[in-house]
Write a sequence for this structure.
């Protein structure tokens, strides 16, 4: 009997909820995973393995799991031999060097001879070497933000999303050294297993479809027939819009798929061109 593809995901943390949401949007039926190490999908040949995010790159490297979903920051910090199969576009954040609010840093050279607390010593070390900076790295697990106030270090280097934690500890960002997002990683030997590689290809197709759908909306509207060319030029459609006749021969119905983030930019222009009854509808999945 052929084995299911094994996917490692974070057991608990900022990636977990969005990863499960993505997989469900891909049509995978996932049972309650609370307090379970492994959960098979009911309708797809894949087993979900729930691990600490720090362990995922090594599990994938060693072939304990075939693929994994993890933040790039963790992946590069662990420096494992795996391949990035797909960038997922969520859980974006930055690894940032931050300084006390009262201090003024104007040049990267001012990092010389400073003590920097971080939970990401590998990424920070690579950045310092690349920029010829001689600073002391203090490796701290958790609560990095308190290090300057306790006199342990001068600066910190940590993951920043909103910046609220920095402000709470009277710190301010100085320079971003690494951009991160969730990525799907795979074992370097996976391609040699035709069956599992085929499953992965199907999963990636579903992921692409779900991500495209989330970034897009289906727009519908009625327009005067004479405004068709103007409206067609306004709509940032992924493909040519669908044009349908209406009972009122002077009017047309226009349907199109557009990028979600551009709707409010074109809404007023559409109205000025005579569009009415504008509807914006979510798309569950989309295959182009």
């Amino acid at each position: 009997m052929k084995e299911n593809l094994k996917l490692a995901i974070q057991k608990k943390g900022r990636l977990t909820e969005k990863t499960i949401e993505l997989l469900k949007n891909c049509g995978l039926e996932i049972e309650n995973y609370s307090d379970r190490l492994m959960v098979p999908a009911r309708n797809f040949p894949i087993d979900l393995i729930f691990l600490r995010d720090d362990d995922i790159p090594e599990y994938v490297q060693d072939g304990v799991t075939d693929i994994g979903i993890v933040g790039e920051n963790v992946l590069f910090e662990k420096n494992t031999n795996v391949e990035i199969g797909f960038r997922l576009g969520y859980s974006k954040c930055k690894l940032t060097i931050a300084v006390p609010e009262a201090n003024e840093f104007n040049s990267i050279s001012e990092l010389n001879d400073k003590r920097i607390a971080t939970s990401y010593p590998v990424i920070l070390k690579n950045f310092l070497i690349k920029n010829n900076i001689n600073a002391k790295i203090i490796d701290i697990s958790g609560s990095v933000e308190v290090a300057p106030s306790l006199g342990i270090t001068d600066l910190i280097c940590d993951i920043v999303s909103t910046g609220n934690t920095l402000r709470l500890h009277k710190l301010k960002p100085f320079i971003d050294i690494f951009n991160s997002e969730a990525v799907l990683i795979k074992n370097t030997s996976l391609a040699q297993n035709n069956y599992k590689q085929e499953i992965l290809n199907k999963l990636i197709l579903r992921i692409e479809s779900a991500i495209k759908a989330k970034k897009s909306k289906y727009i519908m509207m009625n327009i005067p027939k004479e405004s068709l060319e103007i409206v067609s030029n306004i709509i940032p459609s992924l493909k040519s819009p669908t044009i349908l006749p209406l009972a009122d021969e002077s009017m047309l119905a226009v349907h199109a798929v557009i990028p979600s983030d551009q709707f409010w930019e074109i809404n007023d222009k559409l109205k000025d061109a005579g569009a009415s009854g504008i509807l914006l509808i979510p798309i569950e999945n989309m295959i182009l």
Residues 215 and 260 are 6 Å apart (CA to CA).
